[in-house]
Amino acid sequence: MNLILPVTPRSRRAPRRAVALAAALALAPAAAALVPAPAAAQAGVVKLATLVPEGSVWDKALREMGAQWSASTQGRVTLRVYPGGVAGDEPDVVRKMRIGQLQAAAVTTAGLAAIDPAFNVFNIPMFFGSYPELYATLDALEPVLRQRLEARGFVLLSWGHGGWVYFFTKSAVSSVDGLRRSKMFVWAGDDHMVQLWKSYGFQPVALAATDIMTGLQTGMIDAYPTTPLLGLTLQWYRQTPNMVGMGLAPLVGGLIMTKSAWAKIAEADRARILEACRRLEQRLEVEVPKQDTTAVAEMQKRGLTVHPVSGAAAAEFRATAEKFASGMTGAKVPAEVLALARRERDAFRARAGGAK
Protein backbone atom coordinates (compact mmCIF):
# COMPACT_ATOMS: atom_id res chain seq x y z
CA MET A 1 0.00 0.00 0.00
CA ASN A 2 1.33 3.42 -0.91
CA LEU A 3 2.18 5.81 1.88
CA ILE A 4 -0.08 8.53 0.52
CA LEU A 5 -2.70 7.25 -1.86
CA PRO A 6 -3.01 8.70 -5.36
CA VAL A 7 -5.25 11.61 -6.17
CA THR A 8 -8.25 10.55 -8.24
CA PRO A 9 -9.07 12.92 -11.13
CA ARG A 10 -12.50 14.38 -10.56
CA SER A 11 -13.64 13.45 -14.05
CA ARG A 12 -13.55 9.75 -13.13
CA ARG A 13 -16.49 10.24 -10.80
CA ALA A 14 -18.33 13.13 -12.40
CA PRO A 15 -20.93 11.16 -14.42
CA ARG A 16 -22.15 9.00 -11.53
CA ARG A 17 -22.00 11.87 -9.05
CA ALA A 18 -24.11 13.96 -11.44
CA VAL A 19 -26.68 11.16 -11.41
CA ALA A 20 -26.55 11.10 -7.60
CA LEU A 21 -27.14 14.85 -7.49
CA ALA A 22 -30.11 14.49 -9.82
CA ALA A 23 -31.51 11.76 -7.57
CA ALA A 24 -31.06 13.98 -4.53
CA LEU A 25 -32.94 16.77 -6.29
CA ALA A 26 -35.72 14.35 -7.17
CA LEU A 27 -35.97 13.04 -3.61
CA ALA A 28 -35.69 16.43 -1.95
CA PRO A 29 -39.38 17.36 -2.24
CA ALA A 30 -40.43 13.93 -0.96
CA ALA A 31 -38.08 14.15 2.01
CA ALA A 32 -39.27 17.64 2.84
CA ALA A 33 -42.91 16.62 2.47
CA LEU A 34 -42.56 14.34 5.47
CA VAL A 35 -42.12 17.43 7.67
CA PRO A 36 -44.92 20.02 7.83
CA ALA A 37 -43.85 23.46 6.63
CA PRO A 38 -45.56 26.83 6.20
CA ALA A 39 -46.81 27.59 2.71
CA ALA A 40 -44.30 30.41 2.32
CA ALA A 41 -41.38 28.76 4.08
CA GLN A 42 -38.28 30.81 4.73
CA ALA A 43 -35.15 29.08 5.98
CA GLY A 44 -33.32 32.13 7.26
CA VAL A 45 -30.10 31.29 9.10
CA VAL A 46 -28.82 27.71 9.03
CA LYS A 47 -26.48 27.01 11.94
CA LEU A 48 -23.80 24.46 11.04
CA ALA A 49 -21.37 22.93 13.53
CA THR A 50 -18.19 21.02 12.75
CA LEU A 51 -14.93 19.86 14.29
CA VAL A 52 -12.85 21.13 11.37
CA PRO A 53 -10.27 23.66 12.55
CA GLU A 54 -10.98 27.32 11.93
CA GLY A 55 -8.98 28.54 8.94
CA SER A 56 -8.39 25.02 7.58
CA VAL A 57 -9.09 24.00 3.99
CA TRP A 58 -12.41 22.52 5.13
CA ASP A 59 -13.45 25.62 7.08
CA LYS A 60 -12.62 27.89 4.15
CA ALA A 61 -14.54 25.66 1.76
CA LEU A 62 -17.60 25.66 4.04
CA ARG A 63 -17.56 29.44 4.32
CA GLU A 64 -17.24 29.83 0.56
CA MET A 65 -20.15 27.44 0.15
CA GLY A 66 -22.14 29.53 2.61
CA ALA A 67 -21.47 32.64 0.55
CA GLN A 68 -22.76 30.75 -2.50
CA TRP A 69 -25.92 29.78 -0.61
CA SER A 70 -26.59 33.39 0.29
CA ALA A 71 -25.83 34.75 -3.18
CA SER A 72 -27.76 32.11 -5.12
CA THR A 73 -30.85 32.38 -2.89
CA GLN A 74 -30.66 36.19 -2.69
CA GLY A 75 -30.22 35.98 1.06
CA ARG A 76 -33.16 33.68 1.72
CA VAL A 77 -30.77 31.03 3.08
CA THR A 78 -27.60 32.00 4.93
CA LEU A 79 -25.08 29.77 6.66
CA ARG A 80 -23.46 30.37 10.03
CA VAL A 81 -20.48 28.07 10.65
CA TYR A 82 -19.31 27.04 14.13
CA PRO A 83 -15.90 25.38 13.58
CA GLY A 84 -13.31 23.79 15.83
CA GLY A 85 -15.67 21.85 18.08
CA VAL A 86 -17.15 24.93 19.78
CA ALA A 87 -20.55 23.20 19.65
CA GLY A 88 -19.14 20.00 21.15
CA ASP A 89 -17.99 16.63 19.90
CA GLU A 90 -19.82 15.05 16.97
CA PRO A 91 -22.31 13.00 19.05
CA ASP A 92 -23.12 16.25 20.90
CA VAL A 93 -23.67 18.03 17.58
CA VAL A 94 -26.06 15.31 16.38
CA ARG A 95 -28.00 15.55 19.64
CA LYS A 96 -28.28 19.34 19.26
CA MET A 97 -29.55 18.87 15.72
CA ARG A 98 -32.25 16.52 16.96
CA ILE A 99 -33.54 19.08 19.48
CA GLY A 100 -33.36 21.95 17.02
CA GLN A 101 -30.42 23.93 18.40
CA LEU A 102 -28.48 23.28 15.18
CA GLN A 103 -29.81 22.73 11.68
CA ALA A 104 -26.75 21.34 9.90
CA ALA A 105 -23.34 19.78 10.47
CA ALA A 106 -20.22 18.75 8.65
CA VAL A 107 -19.25 15.53 10.41
CA THR A 108 -17.04 12.50 9.98
CA THR A 109 -18.32 8.95 10.06
CA ALA A 110 -18.34 9.20 13.86
CA GLY A 111 -21.18 11.70 13.64
CA LEU A 112 -22.91 9.89 10.80
CA ALA A 113 -22.70 6.58 12.69
CA ALA A 114 -24.30 8.27 15.70
CA ILE A 115 -27.35 8.56 13.42
CA ASP A 116 -27.08 5.20 11.66
CA PRO A 117 -24.48 2.44 12.20
CA ALA A 118 -24.24 1.69 8.47
CA PHE A 119 -21.69 4.49 8.16
CA ASN A 120 -19.25 2.47 10.26
CA VAL A 121 -18.45 0.58 7.08
CA PHE A 122 -15.99 3.37 6.30
CA ASN A 123 -14.27 2.84 9.67
CA ILE A 124 -13.25 -0.76 9.04
CA PRO A 125 -9.42 -0.77 9.12
CA MET A 126 -7.75 -1.30 5.73
CA PHE A 127 -11.04 -2.20 4.04
CA PHE A 128 -10.19 0.21 1.23
CA GLY A 129 -6.82 0.29 -0.48
CA SER A 130 -7.14 3.42 -2.63
CA TYR A 131 -9.31 6.40 -3.42
CA PRO A 132 -10.67 4.78 -6.61
CA GLU A 133 -11.82 1.78 -4.54
CA LEU A 134 -13.48 4.11 -2.06
CA TYR A 135 -15.28 6.16 -4.71
CA ALA A 136 -16.53 3.12 -6.61
CA THR A 137 -17.93 1.64 -3.41
CA LEU A 138 -19.32 4.97 -2.22
CA ASP A 139 -21.29 5.40 -5.45
CA ALA A 140 -22.96 2.02 -4.90
CA LEU A 141 -23.67 2.64 -1.21
CA GLU A 142 -24.93 6.19 -1.55
CA PRO A 143 -28.64 5.46 -2.30
CA VAL A 144 -28.83 3.06 0.65
CA LEU A 145 -27.08 5.44 3.04
CA ARG A 146 -29.21 8.41 1.95
CA GLN A 147 -32.38 6.45 2.63
CA ARG A 148 -31.16 5.35 6.05
CA LEU A 149 -30.39 8.96 7.01
CA GLU A 150 -33.75 10.21 5.75
CA ALA A 151 -35.54 7.54 7.77
CA ARG A 152 -33.94 9.07 10.87
CA GLY A 153 -34.75 12.68 10.07
CA PHE A 154 -31.65 13.87 8.21
CA VAL A 155 -30.80 14.84 4.64
CA LEU A 156 -27.36 14.17 3.13
CA LEU A 157 -26.33 17.23 1.11
CA SER A 158 -22.86 16.07 0.07
CA TRP A 159 -19.94 13.89 1.04
CA GLY A 160 -16.89 15.26 2.80
CA HIS A 161 -13.32 14.10 2.36
CA GLY A 162 -10.74 14.40 5.12
CA GLY A 163 -7.83 12.48 3.62
CA TRP A 164 -6.34 9.09 4.52
CA VAL A 165 -5.90 8.06 8.15
CA TYR A 166 -2.60 6.82 9.60
CA PHE A 167 -1.45 6.04 13.13
CA PHE A 168 0.66 8.71 14.82
CA THR A 169 2.59 7.59 17.91
CA LYS A 170 4.92 8.98 20.55
CA SER A 171 7.32 6.02 20.25
CA ALA A 172 8.48 4.47 16.99
CA VAL A 173 6.00 1.82 15.79
CA SER A 174 6.18 -0.38 12.71
CA SER A 175 4.33 -3.51 13.87
CA VAL A 176 1.04 -4.56 15.42
CA ASP A 177 2.80 -5.48 18.67
CA GLY A 178 4.33 -2.01 18.82
CA LEU A 179 0.89 -0.49 18.45
CA ARG A 180 -0.43 -2.73 21.22
CA ARG A 181 2.02 -1.12 23.61
CA SER A 182 0.56 2.32 22.89
CA LYS A 183 -2.33 4.02 24.68
CA MET A 184 -4.63 4.50 21.71
CA PHE A 185 -7.30 7.17 21.35
CA VAL A 186 -10.75 5.87 20.46
CA TRP A 187 -13.90 7.94 20.19
CA ALA A 188 -15.81 8.33 23.47
CA GLY A 189 -19.30 6.89 23.61
CA ASP A 190 -18.57 3.78 21.55
CA ASP A 191 -18.09 1.06 24.13
CA HIS A 192 -18.35 -1.71 21.55
CA MET A 193 -15.24 -0.44 19.77
CA VAL A 194 -13.42 0.02 23.07
CA GLN A 195 -14.10 -3.61 23.94
CA LEU A 196 -13.18 -4.75 20.43
CA TRP A 197 -9.79 -3.02 20.64
CA LYS A 198 -9.21 -4.61 24.05
CA SER A 199 -10.16 -8.06 22.78
CA TYR A 200 -7.31 -7.90 20.26
CA GLY A 201 -4.77 -6.88 22.89
CA PHE A 202 -4.74 -3.09 22.42
CA GLN A 203 -4.98 -0.36 25.05
CA PRO A 204 -7.84 1.94 23.96
CA VAL A 205 -8.57 5.16 25.82
CA ALA A 206 -11.98 6.69 25.12
CA LEU A 207 -11.92 10.47 24.75
CA ALA A 208 -13.85 13.16 22.93
CA ALA A 209 -12.01 14.23 19.80
CA THR A 210 -11.87 17.74 21.26
CA ASP A 211 -9.75 16.34 24.13
CA ILE A 212 -7.02 14.68 22.05
CA MET A 213 -4.41 17.40 22.61
CA THR A 214 -5.09 17.42 26.35
CA GLY A 215 -4.82 13.63 26.38
CA LEU A 216 -1.46 13.79 24.63
CA GLN A 217 -0.11 16.50 26.92
CA THR A 218 -1.15 14.67 30.09
CA GLY A 219 -0.03 11.22 28.92
CA MET A 220 -3.53 9.73 28.89
CA ILE A 221 -2.87 8.73 25.28
CA ASP A 222 0.29 8.46 23.21
CA ALA A 223 -1.17 7.29 19.91
CA TYR A 224 -4.13 8.15 17.70
CA PRO A 225 -5.36 7.69 14.14
CA THR A 226 -5.73 10.79 11.97
CA THR A 227 -4.92 12.21 8.57
CA PRO A 228 -1.56 13.91 7.95
CA LEU A 229 -3.30 17.18 7.12
CA LEU A 230 -5.19 17.19 10.42
CA GLY A 231 -2.09 16.13 12.33
CA LEU A 232 -0.24 19.12 10.91
CA THR A 233 -3.11 21.61 11.15
CA LEU A 234 -3.84 20.81 14.79
CA GLN A 235 -0.13 20.39 15.65
CA TRP A 236 -0.77 17.01 17.29
CA TYR A 237 2.29 15.58 15.56
CA ARG A 238 4.55 17.62 17.87
CA GLN A 239 3.45 15.31 20.69
CA THR A 240 3.71 12.20 18.50
CA PRO A 241 6.67 12.53 16.11
CA ASN A 242 6.24 9.06 14.57
CA MET A 243 3.86 7.89 11.86
CA VAL A 244 3.11 4.29 10.89
CA GLY A 245 3.65 4.19 7.14
CA MET A 246 0.65 2.03 6.32
CA GLY A 247 -2.73 3.61 5.61
CA LEU A 248 -5.62 2.73 7.93
CA ALA A 249 -8.79 4.07 6.30
CA PRO A 250 -10.19 7.05 4.41
CA LEU A 251 -11.65 9.82 6.55
CA VAL A 252 -15.12 10.08 5.06
CA GLY A 253 -17.60 12.69 6.19
CA GLY A 254 -20.87 14.23 5.21
CA LEU A 255 -22.68 17.54 5.14
CA ILE A 256 -26.10 16.90 6.68
CA MET A 257 -29.19 18.93 7.51
CA THR A 258 -32.28 18.10 9.53
CA LYS A 259 -35.43 17.37 7.56
CA SER A 260 -37.27 20.08 9.46
CA ALA A 261 -34.73 22.70 8.34
CA TRP A 262 -34.69 21.34 4.78
CA ALA A 263 -38.49 21.60 4.65
CA LYS A 264 -38.30 25.34 5.26
CA ILE A 265 -36.25 25.89 2.11
CA ALA A 266 -38.11 26.54 -1.12
CA GLU A 267 -37.71 23.82 -3.74
CA ALA A 268 -35.87 26.11 -6.18
CA ASP A 269 -33.45 27.14 -3.44
CA ARG A 270 -32.80 23.52 -2.51
CA ALA A 271 -31.50 22.94 -6.03
CA ARG A 272 -29.15 25.92 -5.68
CA ILE A 273 -27.91 24.70 -2.30
CA LEU A 274 -27.26 21.18 -3.57
CA GLU A 275 -25.30 22.57 -6.49
CA ALA A 276 -23.08 24.56 -4.09
CA CYS A 277 -22.63 21.43 -1.98
CA ARG A 278 -21.63 19.46 -5.06
CA ARG A 279 -18.93 22.02 -5.87
CA LEU A 280 -17.67 21.77 -2.28
CA GLU A 281 -17.43 17.98 -2.57
CA GLN A 282 -15.55 18.19 -5.86
CA ARG A 283 -13.11 20.71 -4.44
CA LEU A 284 -12.27 18.62 -1.39
CA GLU A 285 -11.85 15.45 -3.46
CA VAL A 286 -9.09 17.17 -5.40
CA GLU A 287 -7.46 19.39 -2.77
CA VAL A 288 -7.36 17.21 0.34
CA PRO A 289 -5.28 14.27 -1.02
CA LYS A 290 -2.74 16.73 -2.40
CA GLN A 291 -2.54 18.56 0.91
CA ASP A 292 -2.20 15.26 2.78
CA THR A 293 0.94 14.51 0.75
CA THR A 294 2.30 18.00 1.32
CA ALA A 295 1.55 17.73 5.05
CA VAL A 296 3.71 14.61 5.43
CA ALA A 297 6.64 16.33 3.75
CA GLU A 298 6.18 19.42 5.91
CA MET A 299 6.04 17.41 9.14
CA GLN A 300 9.13 15.45 8.12
CA LYS A 301 11.00 18.74 7.80
CA ARG A 302 9.96 19.46 11.39
CA GLY A 303 11.03 16.12 12.85
CA LEU A 304 8.36 13.57 11.96
CA THR A 305 9.67 10.08 11.18
CA VAL A 306 7.62 7.82 8.90
CA HIS A 307 8.20 4.14 9.67
CA PRO A 308 7.72 1.86 6.64
CA VAL A 309 5.71 -1.32 7.07
CA SER A 310 6.35 -4.25 4.76
CA GLY A 311 6.62 -8.02 4.57
CA ALA A 312 5.47 -9.96 7.62
CA ALA A 313 4.59 -6.80 9.55
CA ALA A 314 2.27 -5.60 6.78
CA ALA A 315 0.65 -9.03 6.58
CA GLU A 316 0.01 -8.97 10.32
CA PHE A 317 -1.59 -5.52 10.09
CA ARG A 318 -3.91 -6.79 7.35
CA ALA A 319 -4.77 -9.95 9.30
CA THR A 320 -5.62 -7.85 12.36
CA ALA A 321 -7.74 -5.56 10.20
CA GLU A 322 -9.70 -8.59 8.98
CA LYS A 323 -10.41 -9.51 12.59
CA PHE A 324 -11.78 -6.02 13.16
CA ALA A 325 -14.01 -6.39 10.09
CA SER A 326 -15.44 -9.61 11.51
CA GLY A 327 -15.88 -8.10 14.95
CA MET A 328 -17.69 -5.05 13.56
CA THR A 329 -20.15 -7.01 11.41
CA GLY A 330 -23.67 -6.93 12.79
CA ALA A 331 -23.11 -4.97 15.99
CA LYS A 332 -21.34 -2.04 14.31
CA VAL A 333 -22.02 -2.45 10.59
CA PRO A 334 -25.27 -3.99 9.28
CA ALA A 335 -24.35 -7.23 7.55
CA GLU A 336 -26.21 -6.32 4.36
CA VAL A 337 -24.38 -2.99 4.08
CA LEU A 338 -20.99 -4.63 4.58
CA ALA A 339 -21.87 -7.31 2.02
CA LEU A 340 -22.77 -4.65 -0.55
CA ALA A 341 -19.59 -2.70 0.18
CA ARG A 342 -17.42 -5.80 -0.09
CA ARG A 343 -19.08 -6.86 -3.34
CA GLU A 344 -18.59 -3.45 -4.97
CA ARG A 345 -15.03 -3.09 -3.71
CA ASP A 346 -14.07 -6.56 -4.93
CA ALA A 347 -15.74 -5.93 -8.30
CA PHE A 348 -13.71 -2.76 -8.69
CA ARG A 349 -10.52 -4.62 -7.81
CA ALA A 350 -11.31 -7.28 -10.39
CA ARG A 351 -11.88 -4.64 -13.06
CA ALA A 352 -8.68 -2.88 -12.07
CA GLY A 353 -6.64 -6.07 -12.33
CA GLY A 354 -6.64 -7.41 -8.79
CA ALA A 355 -6.55 -6.30 -5.18
CA LYS A 356 -3.69 -4.21 -3.85
UniProtKB/TrEMBL annotation:
Pfam families assigned to the protein according to its UniProt record, in alphabetical order: DctP
Coiled-coil regions listed in the entry: none
Lineage top rank: taxon: Bacteria
Keywords: Signal
Residues of the signal peptide: 1-32
One GO BP: transmembrane transport
Matching NCBIfam families: TRAP_S1 (NF037995)
Protein's name in the database: C4-dicarboxylate ABC transporter substrate-binding protein
Source organism of the structure: Eiseniibacteriota bacterium
